[in-house]
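User: I'm putting together notes for a lab meeting next week and I want to include a structural view of one of the chains we've been expressing. I don't have a solved structure, so I'd like a prediction I can at least talk through. The sequence is below, exactly as it appears in our construct file.
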Amino acid sequence: MKIERDARFEAEASAHALRWSCEDCALFDEERERCAHGFPTEEHRRAYNERGVLLVFCKEFELE
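Assistant: Thanks for the context. Below is the predicted structure for the 64-residue chain, given as structure tokens.
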């Protein structure tokens, strides 16, 4: 799923404490900075996702 990171997204994410990045996922290996299932992480990382880009939500996301 892809959506634009705009002011509306940021307001809703803040209001609902939305967690969406690899760093929030139980499958993310912080030590190795990679997905435990081997999926690419670049488009899902916090550092990549700045205002104006399309946010890419991972189908394997598992909340910690």
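A couple of points you could mention at the meeting. The helical segments are 7-16. The mean pLDDT is 87.

User: Perfect, that's what I needed.
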